[in-house]
Design a protein that fits this description.
about 230 residues, mainly beta, six-stranded antiparallel sheet
Length: about 230
Amino acid sequence: MASVFCVTFILFAVFGSEVSTESNPCKGKWELFFHAPSGNGEEVLKAWKTRHNNCDIISGICPCSMKNGCLPLNARMEKYKRNMKTLRSPYIDYWNCLNIKKVKIELNTQGKTMAFIEFDGRGSNYLNWFHNSRIIKTSWADMQKSGSYNFFSIDKETSYSRKFFINKNYGGCAKDAGWLVVTDINGSKPCTWEQQKPYPQFLYAKEGKMTIWNDMKFGKADVLNIYVQR
């Protein structure tokens, strides 16, 4: 039954209500699925996980308003540079049916890419694509697919407010070292390095290599974007 649903969904999602024999017009293109500006007071993890309950893509009934945090299909980042609302595509709710090939997370400041990772999205779901075993390429030279991490996950760090977290090791605040963290609006922030208001903030290791967070030499990106490629 699930496979029938996915086949039906793909036909509607790609071609609309009229089935076409043309190839997938989105194939090979990066599609923006999530757009989060820093410092807007909105919880990033909640936005990523919360379904658009009033959206039924298959029936075509899917009111998608930016005011409600909905990201329209085929939206491009350039249109939202001045937007301060976190935007989420309703297609995330149909992740397993989209035949996703790659996923990319990208940090941007003033329109420039500061850091990125491309992941193998095949057979993934909306949470487990973010894992070191799926790395294809990245701007961090010392981030390896087979590397050692104490966290490489969207939501596995539950003690502190550290989401989309890629970290090498803990050892007390002075020794914490890693590559990427979203300091979200909720949760404990015991270390000085993560107390970067207004929240959320997107902290990343600069110069293409891991950073000791407490050295305060990390960058802070304006925007976090997530793309998929089908």
